[in-house]
């Protein structure tokens, strides 16, 4: 019995010694913590008084930086993600206020991208929110009926009377009439056909009630006849169009200043040989493959200043023999004071000397090799 008592007393004494030792260590640690806190205090005070340089800038400068963060208008940013203005609004409270109060940040809207994130409903809600935040700014809008029918965008379109740039990616022309009375401020129209399988034979698309329209891009409208106010246009790009569609359009576009044409392998027929563009200043040819030169033979552009075309446009068939007589005839017949001839994708050695010999009065002849 005495042995058990002696053992317990020894254990108790040992435990008390350990407690005393730990308490001594705790006191030392508390003293160290107190010293560290005292040393930390002036550092924290200095940090609290410091302002990040970007936050000292005037709000107007920050807003201008925000605008340079986005693609150049009318190119739209994504609705969400790192390159979206919503990303800027998530950095801090001040940036959110500046972003939400900067209408130009929200003036270009893209609804052509897949809607997995965000979904269709969320994308529509974001789009409507952007139109509100854009204030009175003119808008740039991209729509695609390959993701949703154009009728899905009714609420968006209803709010887009301020839209001045509209890009459409189409699988069908079924709902195109929504443009007719919905975009009175439209200046630029870009329409791309992503597939022709769903179109009826030889459909006609007519959009005439667009009083401010000045620039049109039509891409891959091979079998479609388009009615637009051609006579009021100043810039026209026709991509992948056949001559029977392209030429009648150009015959009506008498006020064009700039024109870009891309066409495939075809020959101009006799009914095409009457085409004058009296105000045209810039003309760019982008033929795909070999195209005969009757198009140049039938064209007159008395005010043309700049002409760009690939060198294979001037080749005889598939050979490497340059045939520039039609080009010389076009410049002479037009009576234009051409200031720049730009030959792209040259494939004939020393062809630059041929052009300079044929056109000694043109100040700038550029052959990009």
Automatic annotation (TrEMBL):
Domain F-box, first and last residues per copy: 55-111
Q: Which domain of life is it from?
A: Eukaryota
Residue ranges that the Swiss-Prot or TrEMBL entry lists as coiled coil: none
Protein name (Swiss-Prot/TrEMBL): F-box domain-containing protein
Q: Which organism is the protein's source? A: Favolaschia claudopus
